[in-house]
Amino acid sequence: MAAGAVGLILLIFLSESLSLPVGRQEESVCGYQSCHATKPGMLNVHLVPHTHDDVGWLKTVDQYFYGDRNDIQHAGVQYILDSVVDQLLKNPDRRFIYVETAFFYRWWSQQSSSMQETVKQLVNEGRLEFVNGGWCMSDEATTHYSAVIDQMTMGLRFLNETFGPCGRPRVAWHIDPFGHAREHASMFAQMGYDGFFFGRVDYQDRRQRMLAKEQELLWRASDSLAPPLADLFTGILPNGYNPPDGFCWDQSCDDPPIRDDPKLEDYNVEDVVERFLNIANSQALVYKTDHIIMTMGSDFQYENANLWYKNLDKLIHYVNARQSNGSRVNLLYSTPSCYLQELHRANLSWVLKTDDFFPYADDAHDFWTGYFSSRPALKRYERLSNSNLQTCNQLEVLGGPASRRGHFGKGDSRTLKSAMAVAQHHDAVSGTEKQHVANDYARRLANGWQHCQVLVSNSLAVLSGSTAERVYCNDLNISVCSLTESSKKFSINVFNPLARPITWPVRLPVNGTAYVVSDAQGKTVDCEVVPVSQATRNVRRSRGFAVNELLFQVQAPPLGFSTYFVSLLQDGSPPVFKWYRGPKSIWNKYLQVTFDPDTGLLSGLANLETKQNIRLAQNFYWYNASDGNNTASNQPSGAYIFRPNSSTPFVISKTVKTTSVMQEVRQWFAPWVSQVVRLHADSRVLELEWTVGPIPIDDDLGKEVITRLDTDIKSSGIFYTDSNGREVLQRKKDFRPTWHLRQSEPIAGNYYPINSRAFIKDDEDQLTVVTDRSQGGGSIQNGSLEIMLHRRLLYDDVRGVAEPLNETSHIFPDGLVVRGRLLISLDRPATAADTHRPVAQGMVLQPLLTFTEGDLHPNTRLEFSGLQAALPPAVHLLTLSQWDEQLVLLRLEHQFQSWESKVNSQPVTINLQKLFSTLEVLGVSELNLSANQWKDEMTRFDWTPQTGEKPLKKKLEDASPWEVTLTPMEIRTFLLRVDLR
Ligand SMILES: *[C@@H]1O[C@H](CO)[C@@H](O)[C@H](O)[C@H]1NC(C)=O
Ligand SMILES: *[C@@H]1O[C@H](CO)[C@@H](O)[C@H](O)[C@H]1NC(C)=O
Ligand SMILES: *[C@@H]1O[C@H](CO)[C@@H](O)[C@H](O)[C@H]1NC(C)=O
Ligand SMILES: [Zn+2]
Fold it and tell me: Do both 792 and 918 map to the same domain?
């Protein structure tokens, strides 16, 4: 198509999408315009009626919605929304905010159209306001940015499509998450929020901020995006998210109601007013302006909203009545955005923060650093589900409508999208829910994946031209796949969701001893057969019986697939392996790994290209979890809290039995701990595959198992961790960048979330570890890096979940066994990111293998790429997802920080029309990060940091609407109108 014609279509598309913003015509007065007037010169108290509705915790998300299982916890979200709407209608002054779209969406879809009209009216008048508005309130320590952006997009899209601009939240609201990630603040800024409020902050940090009146601040959440792109005004709420003491009027509370009939004996108005004025005046002492906020609500409150509102109406009336006697306190129904607007009007400058709010402690021995690793199997399953979802989304676009309704029936991505969105909740992937709720999250993900499998099969049928049945082997990590175990001849389709070509090691359970493997061109591929290890037999139990594993490397093109063929040469006769015992070293082209001949443990790592060589010792240890019977404090270790009994962990074994086969060393530490040390051909990373469990508890000791890497790198008490999988932050032992720390837990107080990578370095060497899920970790000694892998605990840690973290299942009644991988690289600090950025993306988005028994039809297309060419190494294809019948959501991300790489930390330009091989891009418009506002309509409040600087609002102009330039760490979000070429 000629360029001119394309331009024309582009214009039409743009004007269509921009011309009819809903709500504009009807001049609604929602948002900042609908705020109640405040009184200058008085202390204005913003009363914010709210409920905190966990998307699963002690009960499942469905149980919470319906109010089922009230024997576990009295909570029913449907009644809350019924009751609140009813009460809002009784008095136009009343306000309410709602947060969790997963619940609101369910409720809304059950309402009559007249009720829906009523609610729209409340929203249009700002009486019911959405804040945050994602599908859930995501956890910040254990989530990956890709899944967080998706869940926010899903919730905010529903709000926009249902309510138009009045449904767009102005404020981010994370009142419960247990510590706050800088990347979350960066994402919220890019989603267009004007401000952010939360409730939990370290107790020492809070104390100092109260003294300095710095509970409200400006968070500069990126070191790469030009201010104010990632600047976010941030407020710490005065009382967590609870009402002030004595003022809880929910049916779940016991505080006295306002008894205002003077004729009756219990008249208490003067008492209530006095108590309230005292609290308001002392709260005002620790905030900067003459506005303060009070959160009037808590967990699952407002089920009988009349109780709250009736008393709040009276409180406002009686406190304000004092103004005629000279009181200078003014109460009003308000919302976080109305409060924020007043802070903005105050036109002050705010202290600037550039680090994050981890770890979070609420007392000297109460560090919430255990949940960084709690439920490691769920954490991995969630991460893998994200990979599957992205693949499913991509194939839905590439396969066209036939992917949703095709040869294999009806498939959809929606089920997995919402299961993933629910799983981001701060009691889901965080691991802080009850066991039956964790099972429910996993069940939802599994169900979502089944829906996606139909879609993927349909799409691959379109793209390959073959309707042969495809088999999914989801348990390859434990060598279970009945097709490959029994088949004499099969093919594998390898779909690669990354926008660059990959090489991937495949490992298939088989019973034969010799196979021939060939690629799409018919070329033979090197392969090996090795016996299934004892550790793998132990972990798979009775789920598979293959005796061997077939290993080979596959390659797949960007955003596309390749096909491999496997046929059995020889059955039965026992395999002949070259076995070694206690090898001194293994190596490939890039790396050499050495072992201590006496102990069998790792002892060194060399990068053969750069001639770097470090000492690298590795072992497994366990901390004895505190049982709470302790003089300093009776806090036990639990699902949330990490509290080891001693700072010295027990070593699991000082020597290991090793066997090796090819470039792979199997280490046996204990019946419940083993590891495989692998070097794949042509790989720049060393793989450590760990298997831990069932953790023994017959000694009645809770155990927290770590892997520890000890090197001679001079790391000076500093290590680095990523924030939600994106930017990297520096961590220093026993130190916090913005306040003076009194360290009271030498291990737990030095743990940080690791979402995808951590590293230590000195001038010469950088050792980077890429993880396959979120985990907690620390650098307790110089040159050392430890990562917590698995926890099994015997006591509840008294934060509400009321269960010890002691995971079992029907296959593992003796305790869960967990397996995972760490990928380790040794590089020069200046070039390390060039290795670990792509390695980490490859860990997050893994190729999807599908298997077909027997021969393929000769007309089958064996190779396909959805891209015209691979994207440059700096650019990641973050989202490719069907938006509606005609539109496709695309996110392109620059995946390097500005300081990370000479080569890759440069602006990159991508031509959208030259992106796809099978899709013609006819129109494009750009959105904010959460895709609920057009980019050119985005306006945010300006805030001034105390450094005084006024950020420049310089925008790098694109050369044309098609040629978009990405600067370091930038994510750009587009809706594309596409047609199949
Ligand atoms: C593979 O071999 C094992 C051990 O002999 C056996 O138990 C299993 O049934 C075999 N699998 C198949 C599919 O034949
Ligand atoms: C710790 O103390 C509590 C209460 O004093 C007791 O119930 C519990 O059994 C004790 N735990 C251990 C491991 O001694
Ligand atoms: C918001 O929703 C309206 C429909 O209510 C739609 O027309 C508009 O395109 C949506 N805006 C964005 C940015 O998606
Ligand atoms: Zn919560």
Answer: no
- Whether 839 and 854 map to the same domain: the answer is no
Q: Which residues are catalytic?
A: 176
pLDDT of residue 955: 66
Which amino acid, residue 108?
W
Hey, what are 179's tokens? 């510590």
pLDDT at 948: 74
- In this structure, are 526 and 626 located in the same domain? no
List the domain range (segments joined by +) for residue 926.
875-980
Residues 768 and 904 in one domain: no
* Ligand 1 pocket test, candidate residues 511, 529, 537, 568, most atoms within 8 A of CB: 511
The residue whose CA has the least distance to atom 3 of ligand 3 is: 161
- pLDDT for 27 equals 57
**Chain centroid offset of residue 587 CA:** 35
- Closest residue to atom 3 of ligand 2, CA basis: 629
**Closest among 727, 807, 747 to 971, alpha carbons compared:** 727
840 and 855 belong to one structural domain: no
Q: What is the 680 CA–ligand 1 centroid distance (Å)?
A: 28
Looking at the structure, tell me whether residues 855 and 736 fall in a common domain. Answer: no
- A 10 A CB-CB count for 554 gives 20
- Ligand 2 atom nearest residue 628's Cα: 1
Candidates 904, 854, 881, 894; CA nearest to 975 is 881
Q: Decide if 900 is inside a domain.
A: yes
Pocket of ligand 1 (CB under 6 A): 485-486, 511, 545-547
| Regions in the chain scoring below 70 on pLDDT | 1-28, 572-582, 951-955
At 582-636, the pLDDT tens digits run 678 999 999 999 999 999 999 999 999 999 999 999 999 999 999 998 888 999 9
Where residue 723 sits, what CATH number does that domain have? 2.70.98.30
Question: Rounded to whole angstroms, how far apart are CA atoms 407 and 580?
Answer: 50
Q: Cis before residue 336, ω within 30 degrees of 0?
A: no
**How far out from the chain centre does Cα 963 lie?**
30
Q: The domain that contains 950 carries what CATH number?
A: 2.60.40.1360
H or E stretch covering 350: strand 349-353
Question: Residue 482 CA: which ligand 1 atom is closest?
Answer: 13
Answer yes or no: is 158 within a domain: no
Domain membership of residue 330 (yes or no) is no
Same structural domain, 672 and 811: yes
- Distance (angstroms) between ligand 1 centre and the Cα of 339 equals 68
Residues 902 and 960 reside in one and the same domain: yes
Mutate which of 16, 19, 20, 22 to test ligand 3's pocket (most atoms within 8 Å of Cβ)?
A: 22
Four-point Cα dihedral 16, 19, 22, 25, nearest 10: -150
Alpha helices in 606-645 (DSSP H): none
The answer to whether residue 154 sits within a structural domain is no
Structure token pair of residue 701:
């000791």
Last residue of a domain, one of 832, 866, 900: 866
Determine the longest span between alpha carbons in the chain, in angstroms. Answer: 99
Alpha carbons 190 and 331: distance in angstroms, whole number: 33
C-beta of 629 in contact with ligand 2 (< 6 A): yes
Sole residue written with tokens 């202290």:
351
Instruction: Determine the Cα–Cα distance for residues 789 and 376; give it in Å rounded to an integer.
Output: 7
Q: Which two tokens stand for residue 277?
A: 């004025």
Domain tally, the chain: 3
Q: 30 and 335 in contact (C-beta within 8 Å)? A: no
Residue 330 near residue 196 (C-beta atoms within 8 A): no
> Exposed, middle or buried by CB within 10 Å (0-12, 13-18, 19+), for 773?
buried
Give me ligand 4 centre to Cα 53, in Å: 7
Ligand 2 atom with minimal separation from the 629 CA = 1
Ligand 3 atom nearest residue 163's Cα: 5
Give the tens place of pLDDT for each residue, 398-452: 999 999 999 999 999 999 999 999 999 999 999 999 999 999 999 999 999 999 9
Assess contact for 640 and 178: CB atoms under 8 A. yes
- Sequence-distant (6+) residues with CB within 8 A of 345 are none
